[in-house]
Design goal:
single chain, alpha+beta, L,D-transpeptidase catalytic domain-like, Fusion Protein Consisting Of Minor Coat Protein, Glycine Rich Linker, Tola, And A His Tag, Chain: A, Domain 2, 10 helices, elongated
């Protein structure tokens, strides 16, 4: 198994990449820094003059330290967006600096597999070239084909020369406007100058937490098991970063498949648990009559404020059960306060599809104290309740 990401924190390495990286950034001894060398090129120099000051002010406005020592770029093909995340210490979490609009998309969802297919790659890459004399104003090259692509793509014509670039046109690259590539070029140059030799670029088919995008991908992959498995592995990496704001360790097996560290393990455990899952038996009663309207509603011991506090405590206790990649959930729960005040017949209506999570939530809510039941014509009656529980990682 070959290592794709040398460090889960910020670096990406691939076999044979060091020589290419050194060649791409080679300068002669006359220049004090990588940035000074870049400024010898008119377009790069123009970018520094136009963008350094405004970038610094944007960083200050977001309480970020300028310049960023480490940056992380991730792009979403279907959503036509590119994010830039930054931090200044290895152990810090990445913080979102800016989201850029990607001008256009060539091809469709799915990885690039051959020269001339007009596909934007999907997977885990790094910047391997700064090109201040690009035909598309400025460009940042990514190391396609990587070790996975070399296994899975056309042996003799896998394609090459994939860039993030300006001019807002594309035939298989990631295009931006010229002012946007100026900003990104300056940010990347500063990170390189600060010592980040391998600036990670992760390219995903979609934003996995956007329902419209997820639905599109689901329709695209429903009859394509291979593409579904591919996108699931990318989702593992997306989920890991969403939860920890650190880069996952990515490995490549002999088949060219990506293997994501904790996220992949979590998916495997989840699948095993699902296959062997024994349904939890929850409290259920047959309710003979359930009126729509009552004279008085059920009362929780201590009143409404006490009930809200109880729900907050339940939500706090459920944080450790959130699935990988989920940091916040609003879970709508239905239950019945029976005529003897017993809460029963709990059911999750909205919010989570994870059955283990829902079972745990219901088991905890079934332990709530007995209520004062609703009344109708001065007699106790059963009444349906619907309440939302917020579960959030602080």
């Amino acid at each position: 198994m070959k290592t794709l990401l040398l460090s889960a924190l910020f670096a990406i390495t691939l076999a044979g990449s060091v020589a290419a990286q050194t060649s791409a950034f080679k300068t002669d001894g006359a220049y004090a820094s990588f940035i000074e060398y870049q400024k010898t090129f008119p377009r790069a120099d123009e970018s520094f003059r136009k963008k350094e000051d405004t970038l610094q002010k944007q960083f200050e406005a977001k309480k970020l330290h300028w310049p960023a020592k480490y940056i992380y770029i991730r792009s979403f093909k279907y959503d036509s967006q590119m994010e830039v995340w930054v931090k200044n210490e290895i152990n810090e979490q990445f913080k979102l600096f800016k989201t850029y609009k990607v001008c256009a998309l060539a091809g469709t969802l799915g990885p690039k597999r051959m020269e001339g297919d007009y596909q934007v790659p999907e997977g885990f890459y790094y910047i391997n070239e700064f090109n201040p004399k690009s035909n598309y104003y400025l460009s940042l090259g990514i190391n396609y084909p990587n070790e996975s692509d070399k296994v899975l793509s056309d042996t003799y014509r896998p394609g090459a020369d994939v860039y993030i670039h300006g001019s807002c046109v594309t035939v298989g690259c990631i295009p931006m406007t010229d002012p946007q590539i100026q900003e990104l070029y300056v940010l990347a140059a500063h990170a390189k100058s600060e010592g980040q030799d391998y600036i990670p670029v992760h390219i995903f088919p979609i934003r996995y937490n956007v329902p419209k995008s997820a639905k599109f991908l689901a329709n695209l992959t429903k009859d394509d098991a291979q593409l579904k498995a591919w996108s699931d592995r990318l989702e593992d990496a997306y989920d890991y970063f969403e939860k920890f704001k650190q880069l996952p360790v990515v490995l490549i097996n002999d088949k060219g498949d990506y293997i994501i560290n904790a996220a992949a393990s979590a998916r495997a455990v989840s699948e095993v648990k699902k296959a062997n899952r024994v349904p939890v038996q929850h409290r259920q009663r047959t309710i003979a009559s359930l009126p729509e309207s009552v004279h008085t509603w059920p009362q929780f011991e201590g009143g409404a404020d006490a009930f809200m506090k109880y729900l907050d405590e339940v939500g706090a206790g459920m944080v450790e059960f959130l699935p990988v990649g989920i940091t916040k959930a609003y879970v709508q729960v239905e239950f019945i306060v029976d005529k003897d005040g017993t809460p029963t017949n709990f059911k999750v209506l909205k919010g989570m599809k994870d059955e283990d999570f829902n079972d745990e939530l219901i088991s905890r809510m079934e332990k709530m104290p007995t209520w004062q039941p609703a009344t109708l014509n001065d007699k106790p009656v059963a009444k349906k309740m619907i309440q939302t529980v917020t579960v959030q990682i602080n």
